[in-house]
Write a structure and sequence with these properties.
Layout lengths: L19 H19 L1 H36 L7 E3 L8 H5 L4 E8 L5 E2 L6 E2 L16 E5 L9 E4 L1 H7 L6 E5 L3 H8 L11 E11 L13 E3 L2 H6 L1 H5 L8 E7 L6 H12 L5 E3 H48 L1 H5 L4 H29 L22 H29 L10 H8 L4 H11 L9 H29 L10 E7 L2 E2 L3 H10 L3 E14 L2 E8 L11 E4 L7 E4 L1 H7 L6 E5 L6 E10 L13 E4 H8 L5 E8 L5 H12 L6 E3 L6 H9 L2 H27 L1 H9 L4 H41 L10 H27 L3 H7 L1
Parallel strand pairs: 4-9, 6-8, 15-20, 17-19
Antiparallel strand pairs: 1-10, 1-11, 2-10, 3-7, 5-8, 6-9, 7-8, 12-13, 12-21, 12-22, 14-15, 14-18, 14-21, 16-19, 17-20, 18-19
Helix pairs in contact: 1-11, 2-9, 2-11, 2-12, 9-11, 9-12, 9-20, 9-21, 11-12, 13-14, 14-23, 15-20, 15-21, 15-23, 21-24, 22-25, 23-24
Length: 824
């Protein structure tokens, strides 16, 4: 093969055929063709590694961006409500509400009316619309398939995505609505008997699959929902509201022209209109909290993408450098025949750069292919455009940065190696090796310790292997420790202050359904019950803000374990405890004196804030919004009245919630009370952790792969670069099994250092991260323990290093000693 080069002939002009440019770069293309044929498998493996790493990063980053913007994108197209007014009073004057200043739209819904879907009793039906505004001028949902129903058609309906998943039915299919008789509706409204659907039957054609940012947003575990039209309500009005309609309760979704800024004025006007405080649900605040959830999930996914990318840079960098150094060494012969430094640099770097480009294309294709699986968690509940998503900015950013880093690493390595060659490191002793020598350990063990800790004359990659092992173990243990905290929060309502396992609603709107004292005594008598709180719930005004307050009225001798975050629980009529969210919004601190009003907003009473504590989650209050007052303090505020009267029951650890519920229902009788499992109500804060629970596992696995790659690289390179030392030992009498022991000892030392440093640091790091998350959520911090990870850390590390060392150990044992010594 004849190679003709001339750098002087390169004058920057583009020529063809036998031009100087062609003569300069023809050897590069010739080498590249040869290199691709000779090392195609290594380059293919690099391309696959790039595809796996960058595809994962692109998928996670694009999913994070999609999830973070999902709520804002759906709110932009759904005419969202600003506030929901829930007076829960029959005969409330909604026409007067429509005339209030700043009210842009009002959509009324029937709270007490109900119907069922034949053959699908699990389906949740939306509250019937009491006008044609709902799903038209307020909370107009995004259409995922089909169209919105015609408000004038009683036989059309829309369903949620979960409905499609649960039933297998979709647009064009028909279901049958089963309605109650007017008498059955009246009896159910008065809590006289459970409702039965023995009235008319109405076929419904599903015309669309929809979702909105609030009204039709469904929980993670929802079986799905179905919504009908105003024409359906008009056609079956008596069946839905009762014979007279006197007991029917209508609530409303309201959109204000000023948005969230108009809520205080609207609340004051609404209270004046009703002549008493009216409970409202701040939809904007609910959306803010939901946005916090989706942002948290997106941040978790983005953090995963960043950590995975940093790990990939290290892993890919090692692979690229190894390939470039090998190619540069092979080009040494051509250098003696006239190949220039620039040509050698480009020729050595071209293969890895091309393989990286191919891997990036494959990774981008994989990211687009799996995009329908995103966004994850809560964001998936509000995504207005599910399906394939091409995030060009993410693909271009990841591809551009990766290709640039690989090109720079490849060319600089190739240039440095071409100019200076591989410079051996100065041998340095280590304290561990000297200790092993003084202990009189066998030569194979002593040599293995030296190989693990000392670079030696061959410049073996020792420090990267140790750092890789430590970071890998630290990352796996830290990720799984953090994941233990996530899993605990996602599964344990007590972390959010939900300690009452069983609940019975014994009264509503100042009227008990039966003898509440009998219910309290029955609950207190159960052997598995450790605390009973006779709870009354009302809406007070704290510093001119509506706050749901709960009375702390414990059965004698059975104090409840309400989780106090700061200070103490209220003990006198002049004391109050607030949830952290209320305290944050009002700027109140423990010890402050607040103005609190009960039924009459104008009749404020000074009350001292004695502490911060979570409150029970219910349909109108989250665990972080509300407050506690003593029984006497509640009576002073509401004069014995209540919105709800509840009996909340706390059980001993290990007790069966369902068994206790069934016993209590049997003890009091179904006509007097109905006990339910208290933690059935989902917590959005728990949902946010369920949405990211899998990410720490993926990150731990990814970092584990990095550790395996670093240690494996060190062992393979160590045997190759230190084959002269092994050959000398073999020539001095070391057996093949002793040569194997050298490599096995080297692997064991690297693994032991990784465990000794990585395990404790990983536990501390995982707990520190979880404490920061718990404080900001907020929730009650409990130090997480990844028991399974800690138990398996040592055996897994032993197995991993053993498998990694097996091949290089066999190579060390099979060295052909004369050839190695002759080559050296």
């Amino acid at each position: 093969m004849t190679i003709r080069t001339s750098e002087a002939a390169t004058d920057g002009r583009t020529r063809v055929g036998g031009s100087p440019v062609a003569r300069v770069w023809r050897p590069v293309w010739a080498w590249l063709r040869l290199d691709l044929r000779r090392r195609w498998l290594s380059l293919l493996m690099l391309a696959l590694l790039v595809a796996l790493a960058t595809g994962t990063v692109m998928t996670a980053a694009a999913g994070a961006r999609r999830g973070a913007s999902a709520l804002d994108r759906i709110l932009a197209v759904t005419s969202p409500a600003t506030v929901a007014a829930v007076p829960n009073e029959p005969g409330f004057d909604w026409e007067a509400v429509r005339r209030l200043p700043g009210v842009e739209a009002v959509g009324t819904i029937l709270l007490t009316g109900s119907y069922a879907i034949e053959g699908h009793p699990e389906i949740e039906v939306l509250s019937p619309a009491m006008d044609d505004e709902t799903m038209r001028t307020v909370e107009r949902p995004a259409v995922l398939a089909g169209r919105l129903p015609d408000p004038a058609r009683a036989d059309e309906a829309v369903v949620s995505p979960r409905f499609v998943e649960t039933t297998g039915l979709s647009v064009g299919d028909t279901v049958t609505a089963l309605l109650p008789t007017p008498a059955a509706t009246d009896a159910a409204a008065l809590n006289e008997e459970p409702i039965s659907y023995t009235g008319p039957r109405q076929p419904l054609t599903i015309v669309g699959v929809v979702r909105s940012g609030w009204w039709t947003r469904e929980p993670q575990d929802s079986p799905g929902g179905l919504g009908t039209t105003f024409a359906f309500t008009e056609t079956y009005r008596e069946n839905l509201v009762g014979a007279t309609g006197d007991a029917a309760i209508v609530n409303a979704m309201v959109r204000l022209s000023a948005g969230a800024a108009g809520i205080p004025a609207f609340q004051e006007a609404l209270d004046r209109l009703a002549t008493h405080p009216v409970e409202t649900l701040n939809v904007v605040e609910d959306q803010r909290k939901f946005r916090e959830t989706t942002t948290f999930e997106a941040a978790g996914l983005a953090a995963f993408a960043l950590a995975a990318y940093l790990a990939a840079v290290v892993l890919l960098g090692q692979a690229v450098v190894r390939l470039v150094i090998g190619a540069t060494a092979d080009l040494g012969v051509l250098r003696t025949l006239g190949l220039t430094t620039r040509q050698a640099t480009v020729a050595a770097a071209a293969g890895p750069v091309l393989a990286t480009a191919a891997g990036l294309l494959a990774g981008a294709g994989a990211a687009v292919a799996v995009s329908p699986l995103f966004p994850l968690g809560s964001a998936a509940l509000v995504e207005p455009e599910p399906g394939v998503d091409l995030d060009v900015s993410v693909i271009l950013a990841v591809s551009g940065v990766t290709l640039l880093l690989v090109a720079v690493a490849a060319t600089t390595t190739a240039f440095a190696t071409s100019v200076g060659g591989v410079r051996p490191a100065r041998p340095r002793g280590s304290a561990a090796a000297r200790l092993a020598y003084r202990l009189g350990l066998p030569v194979p063990v002593l040599t293995g310790v030296r190989f693990a800790l000392e670079p030696g004359r061959a410049g073996a990659a020792v420090r990267p292997a140790l750092v890789g092992a430590v970071v890998g173990v630290l990352g796996v243990v830290g990720s799984l420790t953090f994941q233990a905290g996530v899993a605990d929060a996602a599964a344990n309502p007590a972390r959010f202050g939900q300690t009452f396992a069983v609940v019975s609603i014994v009264g509503f709107n100042d009227r008990d359904f039966g003898p509440a004292d009998d219910v309290v005594r029955a609950a207190a008598a159960d052997p598995d019950v450790v605390a009973v709180n006779d709870t009354r719930v009302g809406v007070a005004t704290v510093e001119r803000r509506p706050v749901t307050v709960f009375s702390l009225d414990e059965v004698a001798g059975r104090p409840s374990s309400v989780q106090v975050l700061a200070g103490r629980l209220p003990a006198t009529p002049g004391e109050i405890v607030l949830a952290p969210g209320v305290a944050r919004r009002t700027g109140a601190r423990v010890g402050d004196v607040l103005t609190v009003a009960g039924r009459d907003p104008a009749d404020g009473t000074p009350m001292r804030l004695t502490g911060l504590a979570f409150v029970p989650q219910d349909p109108h209050t989250t665990y972080d919004e509300g407050g506690w007052v003593s029984a006497s303090g509640y009576h002073a505020l509401f004069d014995g009245g209540f919105k709800y009267h509840e009996v909340r029951v706390e059980l001993r650890p290990g007790a069966s919630t369902l068994a206790v519920r069934d016993r209590l229902n049997e003890a009091v009788g179904a006509d007097d009370a109905f006990f339910v499992v208290g933690d059935e109500l989902p917590l959005e804060a728990q949902d946010r952790f369920r949405g990211v629970a899998v990410l720490p596992r993926f990150l731990g696995a990814f970092l584990g792969v990095l550790a395996v790659g670093a240690v494996g690289h060190a062992l393979f390179v160590g045997v190759r670069r230190r084959r002269h030392e092994v050959a000398v030992l073999r020539a001095l009498g070391t057996t093949r099994w002793q040569a194997r022991a050298i490599v096995l000892t080297q692997a064991a030392v690297i693994g032991a250092i990784g465990l000794a440093v990585g395990v404790p640091v990983g536990v501390l790091l995982g707990r520190a991260l979880w404490r920061a998350v718990a404080t900001s959520t907020p929730l009650i911090y409990v130090p997480p323990v990844a028991a399974l990870a800690l138990a398996l850390a040592v055996p897994t590390a032993v197995l991993a290093v053993g498998l990694l060392a097996s091949v290089p150990a066999r190579r060390a044992a099979r060295l052909h000693v004369p050839d190695v010594l002759r080559a050296e």
